[in-house]
Amino acid sequence: MVSLLSCELFSFIGTKLNLFIYNTTPLFYLTSHDGTGAKWRTEKEAWGAWHKLNFTDTYVSDCFNTVLKSNNVGARDSEFIQPTKSNSIVLLGDSFAEGHGVNFNDTAQTHIENLTGLNILNFGSGGNFGPVQYYELYKNLASKYEHDAVMVFFLPGNDFTDNDYEAYKLLGRDKYLSGRSRYRPYWKSFENNYETFYPEDAIPSENFGHLEEGLFGQFKRFLIRYTYSSNPIRSGYALRDLWANKKSLDYAGYYDSTEDQQKAVVFYIKKLFKLAKESRKKNIIVLIPGIEDIARFKVSGNQYEEQFWYRNFSELASLHGVQIIDLMKFLPLSDSRPLFLECDPHWSPHGNKWAGEIISKHLIPK
Question: Domains of the chain by range and CATH?
């Protein structure tokens, strides 16, 4: 018992001094401690992670308390009714598009709509979402709604690894806690090309099973909800994952992804835009730098423009009219840290407003 109390005291002090990778206050000590944001997620669609239809959930952390609501098709947006409003844009992306950590009125989407008068159909999703899934979601759902353009929020920080099966196996993120494979698509090389596959034992799941299943899952949730000791434990696992995936703590997706990852991502982005172009839709891609990318940029500058992925995106712009909005080129002259949440690497309300204003200037003015 003394050892457990000593461990908890050490973890409390280390958390307050920000000594770990995770330095979060247990949910039990927060004003509201019911929400982890996992209940509204599913993993049963062809594109993997998504949201339950017409569902409300909450997500509470050290620095945010958000309400999560999905509409009639599972998107974090108002109801989608055909025909949609004129000047509609389908938005695809991961948790940055979804609006992780902020309420709906503070999302980049809302700022864009207010500033331009455009109608954004937000098909963004958290839950480990990458370019293979952007394509599958667009093909199977988003393309069915009337729209004039497709806009992808592209996050180099994890979009190169989110559908890399080998990377996910090394990280242990490919399976639920029960040991069954997650139902999500991955890419694999095939005769100098790429194709989509699902693990053989993957079964569609109504709930986000890897967060909910098994005794170990219950024990993990107990630690996170009630103890500071979960912080050094989770930090240790994070360091293991970084080592297994040959990443460092300063991994910057703009600069550090592998050649195969870059080629796979370019393949699926081109495939997505080709599908949209067949219906004469305008294509837009927004490049989003994370905290590590910005730190590297201050040292290495625009060397990322020499990367395979960036050169190919630039080719899409010059030869096929794809509009590229690279937010790295619009960083504030002062400290960029306020763009992100204090306890989380996603955009803060200020960051969403910053991104929304920049993107709006590149779209149709109101």
Answer: 84-212+245-361 (3.40.50.1110)
